[in-house]
Amino acid sequence: KVEIGDRVGLEQILVDMDPEPVKANARGYVTQRQEGLKRGQKIEDVALGDMCIMIAPTLRPVQPSFDEEPVNVFAKGRELVEWKLEVGDEVETGDTIVTLKTPDGAIVEVTAPRDGVITAVLAGIKPGNNIEKLCSTVATNCTLAVVGRKLPPLLLREEGTNINAPRNVQFVEWKVRSGEPVKKDQLLLVCRDSEGNNVTIAAPHEGVVVRLLKFLRVGMFLDKV
């Protein structure tokens, strides 16, 4: 019933569930939800534990790791105008990542501090949102995005199987979605080698697709992201 970044009220219905819906136990913002759930599925078949959605007074902070650089902005009184790039996009130093509007109407470009890949953004923040109200840190140092060397690895649920891709192949397309049940040897994704031949990757066993590296773009080399 809601998307990440939506503001919700107390007792607002968040998820239609059987036998009763999940309602908000506080006012705030949707900061995380379990993607891939489909009608009729049990949460424990897809998620870790029984949590399927999270609410907080502000949006979740973006936390760079030791080899990443934050894209910090002065947030007081500023609104988000437009994201120019997304997670997974390659950047060079000075490339515009997002534009903001100051209280006097001026447009400010927020740029990449280094060459690399955008590994995270402040999820749920939308055009017109007041950054100062949504950011969980002090208004003078709000992190809107993170630039690193490559995308972070997937986090797997217990007993999950990590699917490693061959080296020097480029991504073409996914054949499955998060939350989709799969059979052993079912096709998961298609890649292409340096000679233009298709390389397919199949499920090693029956199960459910827990998570995908969803920010892959056509043509990206899998061993570089």
What's the number of extended β-strand segments?
Answer: 17
Q: What order do the SSEs take from the amino end to the carboxyl end, as H and E?
A: EEEEEEEEEEEHEEEEEE
Mean pLDDT: 78
Shape: flat
Largest sheet: 4 strands, antiparallel
Task: Work out the helicity level.
Answer: under 10%
* Strands in their spatial order, largest beta sheet: 6-12-11-8
Give a structural overview.
The chain contains one helix and 17 strands. The protein is mostly beta strands. The chain is flat, with a radius of gyration of 20 Å. It starts with 6 loop residues before the first strand and ends in a 17-residue tail after the last strand.
The gist of it:
The chain has 225 residues and is an all-beta fold.
Task: Throw out a few tags for this protein.
3-stranded antiparallel beta sheet; about 0% helix; 17 strands; about 220 residues; mainly beta
What is the topological layout?
Blueprint: E1 7-8, E2 13-15, E3 22-23, E4 28-33, E5 53-56, E6 69-73, E7 79-83, E8 90-91, E9 96-101, E10 107-111, E11 116-121, H1 131-134, E12 142-148, E13 170-174, E14 181-182, E15 187-192, E16 198-202, E17 207-208
Antiparallel strand pairs: 1-4, 2-3, 4-5, 6-12, 7-9, 8-11, 9-10, 11-12, 13-15, 14-17, 15-16
